[in-house]
Amino acid sequence: MPIITRKTFIYTVQQGDTVYSIAQRYQSSVQEILRINYLFPPVTDVGLY
To answer: Where in the numbering of this chain does the LysM domain appear (predicted)?
Structure first.
């Protein structure tokens, strides 16, 4: 059985944050943050990345 290690964070979005800036801060990717948080159109706007 493989061992799965993941780090998860609870982060409160601050004014001025973008998905991209959060991804950079936590060494993740925009796609991963969108997927994990179930952020899909029409909830998301590609202009906000």
So the answer is: 9-49
E strand or H helix that includes residue 28: none
Exposure letters 20-41 (e unless 16+ CB within 10 A, then b):
eebbeeeeeebeebbeeeeeee
Over residues 3-44, the pLDDT tens digits come to 777 777 789 999 999 999 999 999 999 999 988 888 877 666
Domain count, the chain: 1
Residues whose CB falls within 8 Å of the CB of residue 25, separated by 6 or more in sequence, listed in order: none
Structural domain that includes position 31: 19-48
